[in-house]
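# step 3/5: fold
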Amino acid sequence: MNPANVKLTRQLGYIHLELSLENALRFLKLLKEKKGVYEDIEDSIRILENFDAFYEYIRKKHKEYVAPRKNEVDMLAGRVTVDKIKLEVDKIKKVTIVFDKRVKIEEITEILRDLGLEFEAF
């Protein structure tokens, strides 16, 4: 995956955004600015800032995804954005962010455009 490559897909009602670690951090920080400070976004940033530690943890536990902490009040109010995160290393560190089912694809594409990232949508 070229660091500039960004893939946007929908699977079983969930939107998946696959991109490099650096771009994922930029994306989540801009998302936080636009949506506000919510526990799932904050924890997602923390996970990515500590990529190596979390990558080793999920490999040792034979897991594919890591789930950020979510505030119950935010869940009930429909403010949760990030459902889970997949961490991969394939020449570069890459991340797949799986969004909550209530997140609209337009919100994601707007932030990608604001960051100047070209993306493929499937």
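# step 4/5: annotate
The first strand starts at residue 7 and ends at 11.
# step 5/5: archive (pending)
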